[in-house]
Amino acid sequence: MSQAPASSATVVIYSGGMDSFTVLHRALREGRDVHALSFDYGQRHARELEVARRVCRDLAVPHQVVDIRAIHGLIDNSALTDTERAMPDGDYDADNLADTVVPNRNMMLLSMAIAKAVNIGAGRVDYGAHGGDHVLYPDCRPEFVEAMNAVAGIANFEPVEIHTPYLRHTKADILADGLAMGLDYADTWTCYLGESLACGRCGSCRERLAAFAAHGVSDPLGYAQRPDTATDGESDDV
């Protein structure tokens, strides 16, 4: 007996950052019926949720923001969720950026995204784990994704695929894909601080700026300080 075709519906875990922004558009280009899902877990950079709302509204993509701030006390041992802790500066490094790990974040978010997928009959959950995160974030590593995919295949009556198109790619690779699609990365937020301008100092900002520099393209986002201009007297305004 032939199997029924998989649902074209996809739940995209959409933070508002450039990785998930690219994943979202990639799914749309595939002709998927995209349902964007964002989470408010008390992150300091909650500004990313404002960006996510605006993008989904402009694209007419169904979007749900789930308020899970009630679990904040379970995951507050991180610079991303504790405003009393200093945000590490500098390039991504296992020593100085371990403070930005939010305990068990992706397992929790994926579990809820899988539940939504089952609820609406979607056959897939997309999220933007990529190769640059492997050293720092255990829940972005291929081993984690493979294990979660195995669980997602048996946890419900209908299996759900966890799709990570950039799992073995760099931030620069993701940007290359997005630029080829003509995406405007002014519609994203990457900085770990939720201020009016991106800080340009945290590892997330620096990795983003390095990706743009690798392609010889100027990042359209506004920065309080750009590492590439901080010493040459140029304006930081975009």
Automatic annotation (TrEMBL):
| Upper lineage | Bacteria, Pseudomonadati, Pseudomonadota, Gammaproteobacteria, Oceanospirillales
**The family this protein is said to belong to:** Belongs to the QueC family.
The record describes the protein's role as: Catalyzes the ATP-dependent conversion of 7-carboxy-7-deazaguanine (CDG) to 7-cyano-7-deazaguanine (preQ(0)).
**Which cofactors are required for activity?**
Zn(2+)
Q: Which reaction does it catalyse?
A: 7-carboxy-7-carbaguanine + NH4(+) + 2 ATP = 7-cyano-7-carbaguanine + 2 AMP + 2 diphosphate + 2 H(+)
The name this protein goes by in its record:
7-cyano-7-deazaguanine synthase
Q: Which UniProt keywords apply?
A: ATP-binding, Ligase, Metal-binding, Nucleotide-binding, Queuosine biosynthesis, Zinc
- Source domain of life is Bacteria
Which GO terms fall under biological process for this protein? tRNA queuosine(34) biosynthetic process
Supply the enzyme class, top level: ligase
- Comment on bound cofactor: Binds 1 zinc ion per subunit.
What InterPro entries has UniProt attached to this entry?
QueC, Rossmann-like_a/b/a_fold
